[in-house]
Amino acid sequence: MKKLYLSLSLFLGMLSAQSCDEAISPNAETIASLQLINARKKLLVDKTWKFYLYVTKNPDGSTYTNYSVKDGIGLSSDYAKFTYTFKSDGTFVLASANTSLQGEWVLSSDGNAISTQIGVGSPITYAIETLTSDELEIESSSSKLKLKI
Length: 149
Fold this sequence. Notes:
This protein is of the alpha+beta class. It has helices at about 1-25, 30-45, and strands at about 50-55, 65-70, 85, 90-95, 100-105, 115, 125-130, 135-140, 145-149.
């Protein structure tokens, strides 16, 4: 009887060990997502991003360009002085000539969106349209930003 109990215990232990291995082993999709997130973090952090384009999206579907280097709109406005700096610890600084705000940022689990939050305000989630070593283009339901190094 002891042999049967011991054999059954060993068999159940092997089953649970196999089950645990499968549960913690990432699949190819998870690995690809993690690689994308890490690559995007490397492109994003420890750089000073300057506003290149800022467009407000209105509820009626219309848009308003607040700032555009390319089109020469608002070049003397405060937007010309704003910079974003994303840090590897998940914080960021939005700074201008006279003030700076600190907040937190996080990439989505698939690496295709970034959420930012300042203080206790609601987070803003932006879809990442473009992210290269010198250009970041993001879009939310209410705005579109293009930042450059």
